[in-house]
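dumping this here so i dont lose it
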């Protein structure tokens, strides 16, 4: 058939040229995954009894197909009786049956097999874009212990809307790979480290007194994992009182995060040890410093 125009005008007498598969292809490309949309009660489930599970309003996307339970409505799912002294896992799935003719989208209940160990039943995750006719997306696991339902566990992801994504990306951009760490034995100032890719830039401002020239002062702040240099580095800095540079020093940073200072002169009074620079790190990216996105 070749390229099919979708967002184009056709003659009024022409056969309808846009169908559900076209719409599914667009949403599959835009969203790229199955999930529950962040609207309404997000298909919240409430256990009414050991034989009845109620699903409240919300919307979801399965294989690019969009479906919803309208606001103020719900759908009841019948849970088949359990087996005495046996464990069983059942699944509630959202499914689309897409054959290009009469299609169907609904919630479907899949009963597991009772036994000494509970296992999830099989479900079908067919690729409807490529022509498979059935795709099922698990929403809830219903865990039965004997005749009783002991848990209903959500299995779906809630998809953020574009506004939420924009806010979270902005927050990440503000906080990503930034760490302000006070030196371990400093009561005034310490280290500031920023990582961009595998490059770490640092600034340091720390007050020291009673310093002997040429002596190596260790433990001047531990560089955290994710920001440590790939090799030992040594960089120069300035010793400052007020706005006057009184001398210099060298700061060394090792791959284990250890730091050392060596001054070029003696002094008893407080002096600020100021340095800045950049180096390459081979550490894993510091994911712990990235704020968690709560959906």
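and the seq i came up w/
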């Amino acid at each position: 058939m070749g390229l099919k125009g979708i967002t184009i005008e056709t003659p009024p007498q022409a056969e309808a040229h846009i169908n559900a598969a076209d719409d599914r292809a667009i949403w599959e490309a835009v969203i790229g995954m199955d999930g529950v949309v962040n609207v309404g009660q997000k298909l919240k489930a409430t256990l009414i009894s050991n034989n009845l599970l109620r699903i409240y309003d919300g919307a979801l996307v399965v294989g690019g197909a969009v479906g919803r339970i309208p606001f103020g409505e719900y759908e009841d799912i019948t849970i088949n009786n359990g087996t005495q002294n046996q464990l069983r896992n059942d699944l509630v799935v959202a499914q689309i049956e897409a054959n290009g003719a009469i299609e169907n989208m609904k919630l479907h209940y899949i009963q597991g097999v009772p036994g000494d160990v509970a296992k999830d039943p099989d479900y079908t995750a067919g690729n409807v874009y490529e022509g498979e006719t059935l795709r099922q997306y698990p929403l809830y696991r219903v865990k039965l212990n004997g005749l009783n339902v002991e848990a209903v566990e959500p299995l779906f992801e809630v998809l953020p809307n574009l506004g939420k994504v924009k806010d979270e990306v902005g927050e990440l951009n503000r906080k990503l790979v930034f760490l302000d760490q006070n030196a371990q034995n400093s009561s005034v100032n310490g280290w500031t480290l920023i990582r961009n890719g595998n490059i770490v830039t640092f600034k340091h401002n720390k007050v020291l007194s009673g310093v002997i020239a040429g002596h190596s002062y260790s433990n001047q702040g531990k560089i955290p994992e994710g920001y440590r240099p790939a090799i030992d580095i040594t960089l120069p800095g300035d010793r400052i009182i007020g706005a006057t540079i009184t001398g210099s020093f060298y700061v060394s940073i090792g791959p284990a995060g250890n730091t050392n200072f060596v001054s070029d002169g003696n002094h008893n009074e407080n002096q600020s040890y100021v340095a800045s620079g950049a180096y390459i790190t081979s550490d894993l990216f510091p994911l712990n410093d990235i704020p968690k996105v709560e959906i």
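The longest strand covers residues 65-78.
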